[in-house]
Write a structure and sequence with these properties.
Layout: H1 2-10, E1 16-21, E2 26-29, E3 34-39, E4 42-48, H2 51-57, E5 64-65, H3 74-88, E6 92-97, E7 104-110, E8 127-130, E9 135-139, E10 142-146, E11 152-156, H4 159-166, E12 172-173, H5 174-178, H6 186-194, E13 198-201, H7 209-212, H8 223-231, H9 280-287, H10 302-312, E14 317-322, E15 331-336, E16 348-354, E17 363-368, E18 373-377, H11 381-395, E19 403-410, H12 412-415, H13 422-443, E20 447-451, H14 456-463, E21 470-479
Antiparallel strand pairs: 1-5, 1-6, 2-3, 3-4, 6-7, 7-11, 8-12, 8-13, 9-10, 10-11, 14-15, 16-17, 16-19, 17-18, 19-21, 20-21
Helix pairs in contact: 2-3
Length: about 500
């Protein structure tokens, strides 16, 4: 039976990897021989290329085999450069197919700007298993295989491939897989290993799959938490993000105030005591509002920033206690700060991107809440500017914020204790910290604005921290509010 299976497989062409333009993208030659990538009403300049290279580039509509781009001819080098520029802009996808004009077996859609398909080196004796973070889902009329750890998702065009991969819920040797009907091809397995959708373990009977996948920090993550973190932030997926109003014309907007429940109402106004004068906190709650535009001529002073951090995030005290009330278990350290935190975890850290602050140089800093100090972090200027510009865009502001506070979480601090609800608790902590920011900023006569998005891959690049170890979960712009224009 094995011999017959092997023989029938010899007549099947191997899967090859092709680079292809995304379906909505076309290449056109513009003025001065500049090649343009056009999509919808937009176009992006890609640089000047020779007429031969521009002609060869049209093959990207159906796909150019990646192994054919490694030649030394002038046209090949130009095509390599073009492919790299298209990939950086998210305008390329990759297809696994048996021929240039044949149907796709798998289409690889990059999810991060730096993704390039790379094949891991595999041996017949290697044991592979699916990552516990990998999942297969329906997207419109397609099936996609993805993982929050992967830089790309895999669109499975052949249903047999999905069935063949399903057996890897149990660790299997590659030589065993090769004997099975519908073997998904070494090329695909190698790409999936490179993306951390599959990973290697020592033996087929290895039970340490959770601890053996990547590093110890991943042990602390539940599947749904890591998916939520990566898919609700910017940087590790290519889905539409932010206020896109996707359901305009599909369903009406839900009302701002919920329709009343039926039945007789109880008028609370009849029972209310005479209203006393508003307390200071009551006034702050009424005065609090988002301030998106800052006065460029009057930046926040360093002394004001120090006071703001002292009143919102500084460690006030600490204590050590055993895990168990009877004195058993490991000793744990807890801190007290001006805002509440789930289980006293206080997993949130502050990173400051400073554009303008009187007395503090422009740069990127970590706030040490224990010692009440700022530690400068050396980052590339373009990365600092990219983070500030993204905040400006998210707020719809006229300029970048004077100070951008990124709220990052040390995820394991919460997930070490809590199951199933760890990430939800972190987001609740972010909410109470942001409200604390708002109230203190209002009390100090400063302007603040919460920002709903953050780029987790950019933060990882700036700090050198893996996105699943410590990463952004919120942002807050701080500055001196600009005076309203006359007549506004």
């Amino acid at each position: 039976m094995r011999a017959r299976g092997k023989k029938s497989g010899r007549g099947t062409a191997a899967l090859k990897l092709y680079a292809r333009l995304c379906p909505q993208v076309a290449l056109e030659v513009g003025a001065n021989a500049e090649l343009l990538a056009c999509f919808g009403e937009h176009s992006v300049g890609l640089g000047k290329f020779s007429a031969e290279a521009a002609a060869d580039a049209q093959d990207l509509r159906t796909g150019l085999p990646l192994n054919a781009l490694a030649g030394d001819s002038g046209s090949n080098k130009e095509i390599q450069l073009l492919v790299e520029r298209l990939a950086k802009r998210g305008l390329l996808e990759y297809r696994l197919a048996r021929s240039k004009v044949g149907g796709d077996a798998v289409v690889i859609e990059p999810q991060t700007p730096d993704y390039r398909p790379r094949a891991a080196q595999l041996r017949a004796t290697d044991v592979l298993v699916l990552s516990r973070f990998a999942y297969l889902r329906r997207r419109a009329d397609e099936m996609v295989l993805e993982s929050p750890r992967a830089g790309a998702l895999f669109r499975l065009c052949d249903p047999a491939i999905a069935s063949a991969l399903a057996v890897l819920a149990v660790p299997r040797q590659i030589k065993w897989l090769r004997r099975q009907a519908g073997f998904p091809a070494m090329a695909l397995l190698a790409l999936l290993v490179d993306c951390d959708i599959l990973f290697r373990i020592e033996t087929a009977g290895d039970n340490g799959q959770r601890s053996g996948e990547g590093d110890g920090n991943l042990v602390l993550w539940d599947f749904h938490d890591l998916v939520f973190h990566t898919r609700s932030t910017e940087g590790r997926h290519a889905n539409p993000l932010g206020g896109t109003y996707p359901y305009v014309g599909v369903i009406p907007s839900p009302p701002a105030i919920r329709p009343s429940w039926p039945g007789e109402k109880i008028d609370l106004g009849k029972f209310a005591a005479p209203a006393p004068a508003l307390s200071p906190i009551g006034k702050l709650l009424q005065q609090r509002h988002s301030v998106r535009d800052h006065d460029s001529g009057r930046p926040v002073a360093f002394s004001e920033l120090a006071q703001f951090l002292d009143r919102t995030a500084r460690v006030l005290s600490s204590m050590t206690a055993p895990l168990d009330p009877d004195g058993g278990g490991p000793m744990l350290t807890y801190t007290m700060r001006p805002f509440p935190s789930a289980g006293g975890s206080y997993e949130l850290e502050l990173y400051l991107a400073v554009d303008k602050c009187e007395g503090l140089p422009r740069g990127f800093y970590h706030y040490d809440a224990g010692s009440h100090t700022l530690a400068p972090i050396d980052v590339a200027r373009r990365d600092l500017e990219a983070q500030l510009a993204a905040a400006q865009f998210a707020m719809g502001a006229a300029a970048v914020p004077q100070i951008l506070l990124t709220i990052a979480a040390r995820f394991g601090r919460v997930s070490w204790k809590y199951s199933s609800i760890a990430y939800a608790l972190i987001l609740k902590d972010v909410g109470v910290l942001i409200q604390t920011f708002y109230l203190v900023a209002t009390d100090m006569g400063l302007g603040g604005c919460a920002i709903g998005t953050s780029n987790i891959d950019l933060f990882a690049k700036m700090t050198g921290l893996d996105f699943h170890v410590e990463g952004p979960v919120g942002q807050f712009a701080l500055g001196r509010g600009a005076a309203p224009e006359a007549g506004a």
